[in-house]
UniProtKB/TrEMBL annotation:
Keywords: Carbohydrate metabolism, Galactose metabolism, Isomerase, NAD. CDD domains: UDP_G4E_1_SDR_e. Its EC number is 5.1.3.2. This is UDP-glucose 4-epimerase. Homodimer. The keyword Hydrolase does not apply. GO terms for cellular component: cytosol. It is an enzyme of class 5 (isomerase).
Length: 340
């Protein structure tokens, strides 16, 4: 299929582009480079051996989005594009609602006008909110998130569900990611957050490569085995494979719209992740324990059964794979992707 990947120059989008090409699909990328760099595309072409066409437009511009669909033959869309920083979304809710919702609405309208009926959406485990029983299962109904970022994911899942109810041709997979980490084994692409990393793994990697002095562990007094929070980390290569599996199963789904957890089903603590990264680097890494971060939940992980039974997908990479691949990427790219 010819697949439009929105946000295809981003962290998860770029890894998914490679997996789609490896699975025999053609890819077109649309990305406004608001949280990615054009140099990623050159890396993708070098790694995949194919030309990757890019439309550098803002999907909130309905006119430009329409012109993209008029120019390109598209069979399916994988929709990653969106702002994703939880803390920033609390400070700038209007930016997040405007960007994440308008880009999705433009996309859905253009898909309808051009008879594109296959859609895979990048959702998040954050939609389960604070009260869902762990492990999270897809049939949990009280979806709500504590951040405007997470709420955009809840709203977009609802929008897609309603649009599919009105158009029986539409097939939508809602992929709820847990904690994506790691990098392509080549070390040529990986997670490259701009500014101070919000997330654990890129922060640890920047400490290891000498860009940051030390990691602050946000609290070690949680009701968990070692007192630090536990999360379901999954390798971005496994996550990319999950997108290919979902795309290729869209026409066979038991319902027109279907949510799938993409996780390992296992929780790993912050301290355990630090120790795994130290094994990858071969030395101890400096950290100190600080206060809890507002909004952090003690522990959650996926029940990945549905993706296993309905998509034939399961995560296979280990925590040590995640750390070794992240470290290879960070060592080869201490400052992340070049600007040009
Ligand atoms: C993991 C653990 C922190 C940084 C977030 C978003 C979620 C999704 C994934 C978009 C927590 C601890 C972190 C640090 C630390 N993003 N930590 N020191 O919060 O589980 O999920 O990213 O979809 O929506 O909420 O991931 O990596 O930020 O934190 O101790 O410098 O690491 O407290 O326990 P999180 P995270």
């Amino acid at each position: 299929m010819r697949v439009l990947v929105s946000g295809g120059a981003g962290y998860i989008g770029s890894h998914t582009v490679l997996s789609l090409v490896a699975a025999g699909h053609d890819v077109v990328v649309v990305d406004d480079y608001s949280n990615s760099k054009p140099t990623v595309v050159g890396r993708l072409e070098a790694l995949s051996g194919v030309h990757v066409p890019v439309h550098a437009i803002d999907l909130t511009d309905a006119g430009k989005t329409e012109r993209l669909f008029a120019q390109e033959r598209i069979d399916a869309v994988v929709h990653f594009a969106g702002y994703k920083a939880v803390g920033e979304s609390v400070a700038k809710p209007l930016d997040y609602y405007r960007n994440n919702l308008d880009s999705t609405l433009s996309l859905l309208e253009a898909m309808r006008r051009h008879d594109v009926h296959r859609l895979v959406f990048s959702s998040s485990a954050t939609v389960y909110g604070e009260h869902a029983p762990v492990p999270y299962t897809e049939d949990y109904e009280h979806l709500s998130s504590s951040s405007p970022y997470g709420q955009t994911k809840v709203m977009i899942e609802r929008i897609m569900t309603d649009v599919a109810a009105a158009d029986p041709r539409l097939r939508v997979a809602l992929l709820r990611y847990f904690n994506p980490v790691g990098a392509h084994p080549s070390g040529q692409i990986g997670e490259d957050p701009q500014g101070i990393p919000n997330n654990l793994m890129p922060f640890i990697a920047q400490v290891a490569v000498g860009r940051r002095d030390k990691l602050t562990v946000f609290g070690d007094d949680y009701p968990t085995a070692d007192g630090t929070c536990e999360r379901d980390y999954l390798h971005v290569e496994d996550l990319a494979a999950g997108h290919v599996a979902a795309l290729e199963h869209l026409d066979d789904m038991v319902a027109p719209v279907r949510a799938f957890n993409l996780g390992t089903g296992t929780g790993t603590s912050v301290l355990a992740m630090i120790q795994a990264f130290e094994r990858a680097v071969g030395r101890e890494l400096p950290y100190e324990v600080g206060p809890r971060r507002a909004g952090d939940l003690p522990a959650f992980w996926a029940d990945p059964t549905r993706a296993q039974t309905e998509l034939g997908w399961q995560a296979v990479k280990t925590i040590d794979d995640m750390c070794a691949d992240t470290w290879r990427w960070q060592q080869a790219n201490p400052q992340g992707f070049p600007d040009a």
